[in-house]
Write a structure and sequence with these properties.
alpha+beta; Four Helix Bundle (Hemerythrin (Met), subunit A); five-stranded mixed sheet; 11 helices
Length: about 280
């Protein structure tokens, strides 16, 4: 798959924001405090985290203000630890805010955030690389697509906590760009899976729509392909309602394996269940 072909997501941010705000404005006090799949966070705390994303992005990318620095890091784990601490500090502080204040701040900051996203030139170098895809440098379009996956999966965590049967966000219009972006994690995720050159793995996500991706072992590692006519060494079919949970650490592999169907090389197929498209 040509990594230079952008995944279009900018036009979806406002639609996603409006759906989130409509949902939050309809919640009862009890619903604000429902537990989500985001660790121990409640609906209110996930909403607070989304607000943090808006404010930090505008501060850093628009105003060049970075606040705290991670200092010297020795690798991916150190960076994740720093981000987890920032996230926890913010969520603790926003426990003081009412749901009404939180919703109003999400609405106002969302406008500034979307203006920022629209101002970025797609093929310029992004300020932050997409680390979960193994990139040291990323173009802005990939950074924006990564930001979309963040907003999408946290919004979905809220919707799922309130009603697991609500598949509004699993529509092709909103979910396909999330999947397309998250699948870019696979070449890096499979980097230590040693197989002969030309080995193929076929992944299919099935739900309101069905889409397939192929992963091929090449001379310089694994490469994501849009299609192939070659018989794969392994195949994995994942229900749509589970794919996002796998990528966002919302289900453990031992549970996910009960929901998927695989053929061929078991180790190769089921390695997908440990893939992450989040900083974790």
């Amino acid at each position: 798959m040509n990594a230079s072909i952008p995944i279009r997501t900018r036009h979806l941010f406002q639609e996603l924001d409006e759906m989130l705000l409509a949902k939050l404005k309809s919640l009862s006090w009890e619903e604000w405090h429902c537990r989500t799949l985001a660790g121990s966070w409640t609906v209110k705390q996930v909403a607070a985290h989304l607000l943090d994303g808006n404010l930090r992005a505008v501060s850093m990318l628009r105003d060049s203000y970075f606040g705290e620095s991670p200092g010297r890091t020795e690798g991916y784990g150190d960076l994740v630890g720093f981000l987890n601490r920032l996230n926890a500090d913010w969520v603790t502080a926003t426990n003081r805010l009412s749901p009404e204040v939180l919703t109003a701040l999400l609405e106002s900051s969302g406008k500034e955030y979307r203006n920022l996203i629209r101002s970025l030139k797609p093929f310029d170098k992004a300020l932050f690389s997409v680390a979960w895809a193994g990139e040291q440098e990323s173009p802005n379009w990939f950074h924006v697509a990564r930001e979309y996956t963040e907003k999408w999966h946290h919004t979905q965590q809220i919707f799922y906590a309130l009603d697991p049967g609500n598949h509004t966000l699993l529509s092709k219009r909103l979910y396909q760009p999330y999947l397309e972006t998250s699948m870019r994690a696979l070449p890096y995720h499979y980097r230590q899976m040693d197989r002969p050159l030309g080995t193929l793995v076929k992944f299919t996500v099935e739900g309101e729509f069905s889409q397939t991706w192929w992963l091929k072992r090449g001379k310089v590692g694994w490469q994501l392909l849009p299609f192939s006519k070659v018989v794969p060494s392994a195949e994995l079919t994942v229900p749509a309602e589970f794919a996002w949970r796998i990528f966002s650490k919302g289900i453990v592999p031992n549970e996910a394996v009960e929901a998927v169907v695989f053929r061929g090389d078991r180790e190769l197929a089921l390695h997908f269940l440990k893939a992450l498209a989040v900083m974790a």
